[in-house]
Amino acid sequence: FSSTYNYDHSENLYASISASPKFGIYQPTAEINYIQQRFHAPLDNGTIVKNNPCFAISLRNQFAFSNTFIARVDFRARTKIYNGFQISNGWARMNLALRKTFYNNRLIFILSADDIFKSEREQWTLRGYGTTLDKDCYNYSRAISLTVTYNFNTKRSKYKGTGAGNAEKSRL
Q1: Backbone angles phi, psi at 31, to 5 degrees
Q2: Which of 89, 90, 93, 161 could form a disulfide with 79 if both were Cys (CB 3.0 to 4.6 A apart)?
Q3: Contact indicator for 100, 69 with CB cutoff of 8 Å
Q4: Domain for residue 75, yes or no?
Q5: CA neighbours within 13 Å on the CB side: how many for 114?
């Protein structure tokens, strides 16, 4: 048996700082996020829902070896987060990607590996009155992919137009 309760309100605080400097071929982007709920509600054991802050970081490291060859190493992580009656544990993830272009960006190859250390787990607990739900699993976000793209007629469109709208523009 379960039922729904309404609460007056819930507030969330967010703040974010990011930086994208450039050091020759190395082009990092760092971002730090602050997230905190402001929610006042009692749990079934009489304690109050926690409103502790959460921090998330993202480090995107790009290496532009040339105009046609780019490598990326991305790292993302988040600490424990409180969202209403749910508590989600922190996680971390690292991705790699190589991008190579040919024929003036007409042909593009991207080789990528996601969650290479198999470290992004979904772990949470949802507390209700007389009920607790838990989840602890790996969602199989680990992947290796190869994307091949061919762009037809890039940057050299032969279409010049016929000026069909000129009469209408001069009328206005």
Answers
A1: -140, 135
A2: 90
A3: yes
A4: yes
A5: 10
Does residue 33 register a pLDDT over 90? yes
Query: Is-contact 71 44, C-beta < 8 A?
Result: no
Helix (H) or strand (E) holding 19: strand 11-19
How many domains in the chain?
Answer: 1
Cβ–Cβ < 8 Å for 98, 71: yes
Tell me what pLDDT residue 131 has: 82
Q: What is the number of other CB atoms lying within 10 angstroms of the CB of residue 54? A: 17
Residue 53 forms part of a structural domain? yes
In a domain, 6, yes or no: no
pLDDT at 76: 96
Q: In 3-state terms, what secondary structure has residue 122?
A: strand
Element spanning 132, H or E: strand 131-138
Banded pLDDT at 44 (limits 50, 70, 90): confident
**Any domain includes 84:** yes
What percent of the chain is modeled with pLDDT above 90?
59
Enclosing H/E stretch for 81? strand 81-83
